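Q: Hi! First time doing this. I have a protein sequence and I read that you can turn it into a structure. Is that right? Here it is:
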Amino acid sequence: MTSTRLLDMELDLLEKKKTAILSDLQYKERQYNSGMPCDEGMSDNEVAVLIMSSLVRDRDRLDVEIAEKRIQLYEVQGGEIQEQQNLRTTPEIPVSGSHVEKGWFHWVDSDGQSYFLAFVNAKGSCSVRQFDASSGEAFPKPENRRGDFRDSFSEYLKQATPLHLDQQPNLDRDCKVRLPSPVLAQLQKQVQRTS
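A: Yes, that's right. Below is the predicted 3D structure, encoded as structure tokens:
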């Protein structure tokens, strides 16, 4: 067996491990969000968040291993990049090649109401989703605007604080009514640290 073939198989195995971790993470998030713990430790909120954070860490470590294997494969092939190279990313980034970019921010309006804002750039336009910073409840989505959200929604960003999420939720599927509990908890902790 050639080293190229072996590296291809190792890459495939790592991708499958990553898929298994993502499935486990989704399963545990569903338990947590529906308040129906099945796995050990999921009935305790603090432990549940720790378990899910551990899965996110494991997924990120696999991403590093996958990147290292791709470098090895590149070197073995003498610098040639395979066209069919599997560049899977998160489900939020379409395979078609149109890049999706998200940004999360904390924003307080002129009445003192606190929001979490999720901005998205995709296909030459951008959108914003607003969520109550206390309950995570979603507000109706305003119309999309053309261009980059940093320019098109600058009225929010001038006074907003950037936030970070370990794992991006699917806004259409997971956040239609409200933010998933682990996402809300992670955003709220960041705001508490900065206030």
